[in-house]
Design brief:
single chain, seven-stranded mixed beta sheet, about 15% strand
Length: about 650
């Protein structure tokens, strides 16, 4: 599937003509000729030669990676392990690797997907990975008349990784922690041990910071962790201008994973030497020689086995090669299937809302609010500016072998291919207190060094319907940049429910975006903040012009009015893939709790959940790094309780 996509783009690049347009900004003496800013013609023969050398090295690297993979376990029905971990994503890979550090225990890691491959580790290709059902669960939200109105069937795409490394193999590699107040708020909700002072040691434990100017900051950063965090070695001229615009607007340039978040910055990313570092590569590859770590791939868990006499998890039932296999856990089952998969499996195992389970003929083991408290970071997908010069990231040009970009990546791991999905920089802002420079932001402005509108793959990945894509087709030959204003602390809550007592039937996902009117007000403020960036002198020097389209159903609203933006937001609602909260962590006795602060499922012995689903409130940033933190902390708690500290 991915090979077909690349072939399509190669053909597309050969027939696409860049159409320049009239300057609409302030005149300037310098003209730019390419993403690099200079003229790249005359390098064609060198590029073809470099492509051959680079492709050969690329294949050699793929072979080396094959040799580093933990082999697939040979399983027998009824086999026993000390710990069974379900899901080899961000959390599951981390926990399995950490528990296998205990030589006297046997750990089984179960993953529904297959191997990660080298193409997945090319940062610019992040969005293309979502098009393959081989590595993506392909979830969709329930059709709605209040959001996702510009999507096929009024339903948003909700991708999740089905591959070794899980969503850390598909995501955009953006490394943020959220703010200290996020975690202190968890403690205020009764979750002892989860304050920022408690979790900071795990943020440091998991990382090796490869950003030179941050390596001396030992208060906030680690230097010996499995996960490498860096900055892209390449930035477009537009990204440089975005940071200058932030300074002109009075914001600092800062380390948003340090003391304060509010300000502008290039992205910190989970990339090492120009390629993606997933949890699979960071945690499981180094553990490949451990004989006590067993991994079974292409194995779909059907349910957790529970002894109904003792209400204790005793094992797992899964399907592999059309066989139903049961394996037993001597100590614990740890569920790391994510915010959609974990509640689905709990409910299929009899743990969830009693009435809902009974209606589906599922024997109730424990009545808990599983699937409630669903949160996500939603954005508005319609802010793209066009520019005068060919200085933005466009896939037809990147895939053109007569230009230097592909060769630069294959030979030197440099250039625009190292930019994660064209995302280059961000700003965290507080729209309610624009002058405030500490505390939590309520909006993130994610800067993309290319135009979203007119990009065939991006609009397909986002799930926009034919009418929207046709409306944007006129931008397909233009260069530009985009901002995604992201709602960081939504007040709206959704839910997940089963549609059948069958793991092969995807659950019903109802995100309830903008159910709380305060969320809309914040989003509108975020849009206006993004527009103010485009109006700065530095962005106008590139002739930045905001594209203005009237969306279906919004024709009768005055442009730039609150009513207009509300209509546009409900039409172009796009997930940022940060689904959280459906197995909420709260103290025992709290009626909203699914797991306690030790991540133990309430009322069921020997069963824990450790992934983004346990977040009681979503954090103010991208969730991948916090999920690593949750996994690291859980591993230590398990070791402590079983006397392996």
């Amino acid at each position: 599937m991915l090979v077909k996509i690349l072939r399509f783009f190669y053909f597309f690049s050969a027939v696409t003509v860049i159409i320049p347009f009239q300057s609409i900004g302030q005149p300037r003496p310098k003209r730019y000729h390419s993403i690099y800013g200079n003229d790249v013609s005359g390098r064609e023969l060198t590029n073809i030669f470099e492509l051959g050398i680079g492709a050969f090295k690329f294949l050699l690297q793929d072979q080396r990676d094959l040799n580093e993979k933990v082999p697939d376990a040979i399983l027998q029905f009824g086999a026993e392990y000390d710990f069974i971990v379900i899901g080899a994503g961000t959390a599951g890979a981390t926990i399995a690797a950490r528990l296998s550090e205990i030589h006297q225990v046997e750990v089984l890691l179960i993953e529904a997907g297959s191997y990660e491959n080298l193409l997945m580790d090319v940062p610019i290709m992040a969005h293309m990975l979502q098009l393959s059902s081989d590595v993506n669960w392909m979830y969709r939200t329930k059709s709605s008349n209040k959001y996702c109105l510009g999507m096929n069937n009024n339903s948003c795409n909700w991708p999740r990784g089905k591959v070794m490394g899980g969503s850390s193999t598909l995501n955009y590699m953006i490394a943020t922690r959220g703010g200290a107040e996020d975690y202190d708020r968890w403690v205020e909700m009764g979750n002892k041990g989860w304050a920022y002072k408690d979790v900071l040691e795990y943020f440091k434990k998991l990382e090796t910071i490869d950003i030179p100017e941050l390596q001396s900051d030992t208060i906030y950063h680690g230097s010996k962790g499995p996960l490498h965090i860096s900055k892209s070695s390449f930035h477009t001229l537009l990204a440089e201008a975005f940071l200058k615009a932030g300074k002109d607007l009075g914001y600092p340039l800062l380390d948003y994973n340090g003391k304060n978040m509010i300000g502008f910055s290039y992205l910190q990313v989970t990339i090492e030497n120009g390629t993606r570092m997933s949890s699979n590569r960071a945690y499981l590859h180094p553990a490949r020689d451990r004989r006590n770590l067993h991994i079974t791939r292409k194995s779909t868990v059907r349910k957790v086995l529970i002894d109904h006499r003792t209400n204790r998890a005793i094992g797992v039932e899964f399907i592999k090669d059309r066989r139903i296999i049961q394996v037993l856990a001597r100590k614990e089952v740890i569920l790391c299937a994510g915010t959609i998969g974990s509640p689905q499996l709990l409910m299929l195992s009899g743990i969830g809302p009693a009435k809902h389970l009974s209606e589906l003929g599922i024997n109730v083991v424990q009545d808990l609010p599983v699937g409630e408290n669903l949160m996500d970071h939603v954005t508005f997908g319609g802010l793209t500016w066009t520019v005068n010069d060919p200085i933005s990231i466009r896939m037809p040009e990147l895939l053109n072998p007569t230009l230097p970009y592909l060769g630069d990546f294959l030979k030197r791991r440099s250039g625009p291919y190292t930019v994660p999905g064209a995302c280059e920089a961000l700003a965290f802002i507080d729209t309610k207190n624009p002058k405030k420079r500490d505390g939590l932001p309520d909006i993130e402005l994610l800067f993309i060094g290319g135009g979203l509108k007119g990009d065939f793959v991006v609009t397909s990945v986002m799930g926009f319907n034919k009418q929207i894509r046709q409306m944007w087709q006129k931008y397909s030959n233009y260069h530009g940049w985009s901002i995604l204003p992201i709602l960081l602390k939504p007040k709206s809550r959704g839910r997940i429910r089963l549609l059948a007592n069958d793991i092969n039937v995807k659950p019903e996902i109802v995100p309830n975006y903008f159910d709380d009117p305060e969320d809309l007000k914040t989003m509108i403020a975020g849009i206006r903040a993004a527009i103010s960036v485009g109006q700065t002198e530095i962005m106008q020097m590139f002739g930045s012009q905001l594209t203005n389209d009237t969306y279906p159903g919004c024709e009768n609203y005055k442009y730039d009015s609150d009513d207009y933006w509300e209509c546009a937001i409900r039409t172009l609602s796009v997930t940022i893939y940060h689904y959280t909260g459906t197995c909420k962590m709260a103290p025992r006795g709290d009626p909203t709790a699914v797991v306690d602060p030790r991540l133990k499922v309430i009322g069921v012995e020997g069963l824990r959940v450790a992934d983004g689903s346990i977040m009681p409130e979503i954090i103010s940033g991208h969730t991948n790094i916090p999920i690593y933190m949750i996994a690291e902390k859980l591993a230590d708690m398990v070791k402590e309780e079983w006397g392996y500290s």
